Amino acid sequence: MDSRSSTSSSSSSPFDMVSSALGRYIPRRGAAAAAGSADAQGDRTARRRVHADPAPGRQEQILGAVNLDRDLRITRCNLDAPVFAGVEAVTGSSFVDLLPPGDVPTVTRRLRQVLETGEPHVARVQRLRRGDGSELVVSMSILAAAAPPESLTVTLIAMARRLHLYAAETAIGTSLDIGETAQSLAESLLAWGDVAAIDLDFAVWTGEVVTEQPQGRVRLRRAALVPDRVWPDGYVTPGDDLPGDASRLLSQAIRRDDAAQAIVIPDREAIERVLGSPRLVRALVPGDRAAEVACIPLVLDAEPPVVLGVAEVWRRADRPFADSELLDLQELVARTSHHVDLARQHQREHTQVLALQRRLLPRTGGDTIETACVYEPATPDSAGVGGDWANSFPLPDGRTALVVGDVVGHGLGAAATMGQLSMEARALLSAGLAPDEVLEHLDETVALLDDAESGLAAGYSALGSSCCIAVYDPVSHHVALSSAGHLPPVLVPPDGPAGPVALRAHPGLGAEFALREPFDVHAFAAPPGSLLALYTDGLVEDPAESIDDGIGRLTDAVSRVHPWDALQQAARCVVSALAPVRRRDDVTLLLARMIGYRKGDTATWRLPARGDAAARARTLVSALLGQWRTREDTRDTVLLVVDELVANAIRYAEGPLTVRLIRTGDGFLCEVGDTGNGRPRLGRNELLDDGGRGLHVVHGLSTRWGVRWTDTGKVVWAAVAR
């Protein structure tokens, strides 16, 4: 090899090599030969260029190069090809001045990355701004220059229509968000015009089923608009609804002869004549220079076809649409309409699941407990909710239930299971079942849902789901807790060390029959001022540490919550401090601050099961009601309810009785416990019936009554209003 040739080659910069290749990029037979080659390969659409064709014998240059220094300023450029006309790459100016404002941060980051690492960034689909406000779509590659001060070489290839169609379709299908999908489509359409807008049927935004609606009821909303600039007053921008007249006009225009078709309004006079009013011109025409518009329907291929919206591409008067360009526009919109429909379906699922999630979120606590809940999905573009769920609700007997669960998976399958388990748990707890008994029923439900023969699974398995149930008694200030494969709650007592509640490990819900174990009930004291944190594993799991370390960090964070802190704000701070930056799972935290009843608002007596027990109970309760200065009519009602409950316990149960009276915010709660296991039932109370009249008296005098089961028997309770 010649040494001089070698030296010359090694000293050439990427800019010099690209510049020397400009004349050799397209085959020498010119644009006509290239078009003929495309036709030979099956492209049946004739392409007519908007700009003047090059002279015969010359080559159509679509490759250019720009050299940048380390401050990203242009030092040299070779953008002499006609296709780059209007791209003002001036030596000494900043390269980012050629970019749309929204692309500046991303491209700047890419340029700096190549500067630091030397690794090239190849074939980025990018828009460049022309001096007249229009934009040029190019394929941009960033290369490290040979030596300073020439630090970067940026090559620009003006994208051919067929290449642009392929690149645009690929880019548009990368998101399931309606706004992002519409924005990607609008940016791709900008290669054919100066302004592009996407207007979608309002039903697409809400995720509803889009059908062929009567034309008078069509409602369009602007989903995307490019380029990013200051628009005239009154012009419809993204998020705004088009005027009703404009929606009907566009719908009628594209639905000619009962078939959706593209239309072109060729000049400004025709546009103003069709719109018919200055108000519609201000709303739909993007500026004084806009003189021609192509409206292409987004049609879902169905039977019959369904119109999802309209894509509008605007041009100046000196750039009329060629037939081949209109075919390209229709082809791109047709190829990508199904992406818009996929985003609509995702939005529908998103809306449904979020509605369910809102129904499952805990309501505010009552007089005896304060609760706060934070839920954050793993990723913003998920279906809106995963399998995590939390709930807190008052039980009819004055206690409060706290429930947190983690259902396997995401989306509608997990949401349906989550909703079913949550509602079932609430119903069973309200019926008086203990936490361990509720988990037994949930375990059977999960096993049933996974039974393929039942038809309920629908391709989704909930095996391995977990749940933790805590029931707080505001009188005894104790919590009864059961867990099915869930992480232990964290307890922060007012005057003691904080830490996780000791629980025996359990395999979870829906385990195989041979692996099933009885659910335990763990009872512990939670005096007023205690803070209990129930959570899902997404809050404490981190690949870099053990789960015990994560629970330790949660314990420290919850311990720093001051008794006077607003609980909802405190819950957000805990999640913000602990949740991983890159989440692999949903995050749920339920905080409960125990308040309980004051000691002077409750009284408990133990009485032998003898014939005089009812009279003894009336005497004790009457004296207490006198101390509480209760109204006479309310006192008589409470005494009669207590008398009937005690008489019923003596008649049908055995062993000593426990009588408890609680003064609540809106009345009184009367409780009578015994050692019997029979369930009191409200019969029809026929005229000659000798039993069951006591429960009818209780039913008529109380606002609600019920039974809850204990380890030693049952408690029958009744609530009386003031």
CA distance, first residue to last residue: 107 Å
Low-pLDDT windows of residues:
1-11, 23-60, 452-458, 686-690
Work out the radius of gyration.
37 Å
- What fraction of residues sit in β-strands? 15-25%
**Major sheet size, sense and barrel closure:** 5 strands, antiparallel
Number of strands: 25
SSE class: alpha+beta
Individual helix count = 18
Mean pLDDT level: 77
Describe the global form.
elongated
What helical percentage do the residues reach? 25-40%
Strand order of the largest sheet: 2-1-5-4-3
Description of the molecule:
- With 722 residues, the chain is an alpha+beta fold.
- Helix content is 33%, strand content 24%.
- The protein is built from 18 helices and 25 strands.
- Strands 2-1-5-4-3 form a 5-stranded antiparallel β-sheet, sandwiched between helices. A 5-stranded antiparallel β-sheet has the order 7-6-10-9-8, sandwiched between helices. A 5-stranded antiparallel β-sheet has the order 11-20-19-16-17, covered by helices on one side.
- β16 and β17 (499-500) form a beta hairpin.
- α14 packs antiparallel against α15 (567-578), α16 runs antiparallel to α17 (632-652) and α17 (632-652) runs antiparallel to α18.
- The longest helix is centred in the middle third of the chain and has 38 residues, at 323-360.
- It is elongated.
- The model is unreliable at 1-11, 23-60, 452-458 and 686-690 (pLDDT under 50).
